[in-house]
Amino acid sequence: MNRVRAAASQLAGLVPYDPKYLPAEALLSANENPRDVDDEVRELIAAAIARVPFNRYPDPLANDLRDLIAEANGLDRSCVLVGNGGDELLFNLALAWGGPGRTCLNFPPTFSVYAANARLTNTAVVDIARRDDFSIDEEAAFARLAEGDIDYVIVASPNNPTGLRAPADFLERLLDATDALVMVDEAYFEFSRQTVRPLLATHENLVILRTFSKAFSLAGVRLGYILANPGVIAEFQKVRQPYSVDAVSQAIGEVVYRHRARFEPGIREIIEERARVMEALRATAGVRPFPSDSNWILLRMDDAGAAWDYLYAGGVLVRDFSATPLLENCLRVTIGTPVQNDLFISLLRAFVAERGERRARAARA
Ligand code: PMP
What we know:
Layout: E1 26-27, H1 39-50, H2 63-72, E2 80-83, H3 85-97, E3 103-106, H4 112-120, E4 124-127, H5 138-145, E5 152-156, H6 168-177, E6 181-185, H7 189-192, E7 206-211, E8 224-228, H8 230-239, H9 247-258, H10 264-282, E9 287-289, E10 296-301, H11 304-313, E11 316-317, E12 319-320, E13 330-334, H12 338-364
Parallel strand pairs: 1-11, 3-4, 3-5, 5-6, 6-7
Antiparallel strand pairs: 2-8, 7-8, 9-10, 10-13, 12-13
Helix pairs in contact: 1-9, 2-9, 3-4, 3-8, 10-12
4'-deoxy-4'-aminopyridoxal-5'-phosphate binds next to α3.
């Protein structure tokens, strides 16, 4: 067999993104909406797809969907760009504002895709580790920005996987302090009810990322969008794949976005369930849940790996972050339906109780 030369050097040692998805009765590992789109919306989607000409290329810029999003946000179409999931737009950010000789500022622990995209594009990453409570070390961030070499910054608000949003006054001071492009990743903003969108009017260096994958139950469809000033959108347009958002996804996105008010009760339920699960976790000995503005809760406990196994054996898939730096012994549980949340809580409590009994027996022996 003829040999192949090595792939690009920045790929050496790189591990492909792995969502660690496994079949389970309760899928609480990927921060998805536990409820699918309802039957009426599904019928409207089916009718819309029936009208899609499959033999024709889609509108490269998804302009109809773009207009809907622009109108809802009080913006012009030129301030919106739709992508194949937020993930594509995150990659486009690294292509457009990163590259050899360029640098991004990152606040780990955070969404791992940010650092991976930087590496793929040969962008240098400056990490400013979050404090023990996962808040951003603001003084360190401003001091580093003052050196003047940062080309882009990403702040997830709320931050995945830790849970809380970034303080609004910090984001505004950050935007004021730099001419770097600042992406505020609002993939979960429907659960925090907070956005920096008003700052678009005064800050050319702001880009906001949103997604249809969470509040709008469309993780399987792959739709995300950015809001920014037209000059920023124009740069993103230069690097994007022309037809990355297919015609079927555009049709689905338009129906769902027009009917987005129907997702509101589901969002409210998730927010209420988050409070209930938080209370139950706080009342569970040896479990430390971190506060959350999103649709999941990060928790720390001894034997997190064994707890993951126990939960999975009981039918609940959560995400194990215990091997991630700064997240030792941490699990992340997505807020599911009340039934799924009850199953999770009862299994976790059973694990803690059984472990307590085992420890007591070992102490007596
Ligand atoms: N940002 C954050 C913080 C996320 O957690 C995710 C999804 N895991 C995304 C962006 C991208 O989501 P999607 O590609 O599904 O739109």
